[in-house]
Amino acid sequence: MFSNSADSGGSEARNPHWQSEGCRFKSRKCQIGTLLCWGDMIQVKRRSTLVCPTSGCLWPKLSDGTVSVPYVISDAYSADEAEVILHAMREFHTLTCVRFVSRRSEKDFVQINSNDGCWSSVGRLGGAQELSLAKDGCLIHGVVQHELNHVLGFIHEQCRPDRDNYIKINWQYVNPEDAMNFAKSDLSPLNLPYDYTSIMHYGRYAYSNTTGEAVIVPLVNSTNLLGQRYGMSPIDVHRVNTVYSCREYACEKVPHTTSMVPSFICSGHYQVDGTFL
Ligand SMILES: [Zn+2]
């Protein structure tokens, strides 16, 4: 089951899973232009709208049906630190057709550095693109997977265009300079259920300017826990398999090993803790 540690406490600063998410480090990457619900994502100037994954930002499929994402891991990481990243990647290999592969000579690749916080571009940019996973705070399984989902082209769950049916944003607890982190996108939610347990969902205290006051409040069930960073939810996995047409996984019962609840995916239906969605 969920641990309260993922979604409790008066502020995100008290939650280790959130310490390095978003613009905590106030890097220049977080201050570029018109950030909309981006937080830890880099807005690329040549993309004027948030159109990934429909603008060619997906990673290419190979003839064997897998999707190859070449990477280079900075040698600034120790072997143990690099293993956290590699372990997070391997779970994609188990649950989806995405394959993170050590770069040989590929033109497009992800350079993983311990920079100023946890952030990524959204989708494939072309050429080298940086993914920052700071050694101090980002080497957490779910945080790494969150950023890898950005690399694959996915944005935050609470930015879905239909999010107001599921959550309430308490704007009074958001500073104006942080409001961009809660703007809605026009990206299709792909007919997937709203997922409070998504690894791409912010915690309820993210960017709160008032200790103990939640910014994000679930409408459907006020006790829903938000902002887990243990691992991808079943719907997170299905989103990857849907967008990347991982057909070989479409009707294969796959145990979801890192979730707090045992679950399986088959034919686009979700069986989560006994509930059929
Ligand atoms: Zn993010």
From TrEMBL:
InterPro entries: MetalloPept_cat_dom_sf, Peptidase_M12A, Peptidase_Metallo. Residues 48-247 form the Peptidase M12A domain. Signal peptide: none annotated. Gene3D superfamilies: Collagenase (Catalytic Domain) (3.40.390.10). It holds the Pfam family Astacin. GO terms for biological process: proteolysis. It is an enzyme of class 3 (hydrolase). Its EC number is 3.4.24.-. Binds 1 zinc ion per subunit. The keyword Hydrolase applies. Keywords: Disulfide bond, Hydrolase, Metal-binding, Metalloprotease, Protease, Signal, Zinc. Transmembrane segments: none annotated. PANTHER family: ASTACIN-LIKE METALLOENDOPEPTIDASE-RELATED, DISCOIDIN, CUB, EGF, LAMININ , AND ZINC METALLOPROTEASE DOMAIN CONTAINING. This is Metalloendopeptidase. It comes from Erpetoichthys calabaricus.
